Amino acid sequence: MRIGELADRAGVSVRALRYYEEQGLLHASRSGRGQRLYAEPAVDRVRLIQMLYGAGLTSRTIADLMPCVDANVSTPESRARLAFERDRIDAQIAELIQARDRLDAVIEMSTSPESGCVVAHAE
Fold first, then answer.
1. Same structural domain for residues 2 and 50?
2. Predicted confidence band of residue 80 (pLDDT cuts 50, 70, 90)
């Protein structure tokens, strides 16, 4: 499939796909005209890359881990790296829960009409 189709199917921009290729995270073959061509598994790979970025992993970390993902191999080093990242994500989750709880407290306090606090709604 061509780059535009992959972008549509994976829900990312063409620019993102080019970036992933520059970072060594995604590989394409080339047509006779030089157009990028991707195999069907590229859709799942891009979704995985997106998920890992969304979890806060850097492109360098993702690039370091992808050979193990591709080979379906777990090494002590890759498990340690993944455990580190999982622990970092768990810490972020804990911080987000605290932020949510504080917002809940503010919402609870501001339900009375005499609170006098007006906040513009952001969209």
1. yes
2. very high
What per-residue confidence (pLDDT) applies to 78? 86
Residues 4 and 60 in one domain: yes
Q: What CATH number does residue 9 fall under?
A: 1.10.1660.10
The tens digit of pLDDT for each residue in 37-57 reads 999 999 999 999 999 999 889
Of 19, 18, 22, 20, nearest to 4 by C-alpha is 18
In Å, what is the CA distance from 54 to each residue of 49, 51, 60, 110? Answer: 8, 5, 14, 32
What's the mean pLDDT in 93-116? 86
Range 64-73 average pLDDT: 87
- 20 and 64 together in one domain: yes
Is 7:14 a contact under the CB 8 Å cutoff? yes
Burial 57-74 (b: 16+ CB within 10 A, else e): bebebbeebbebeeeeee
Using alpha carbons, select from 58, 55, 54 the residue that is nearest to residue 24.
Answer: 58
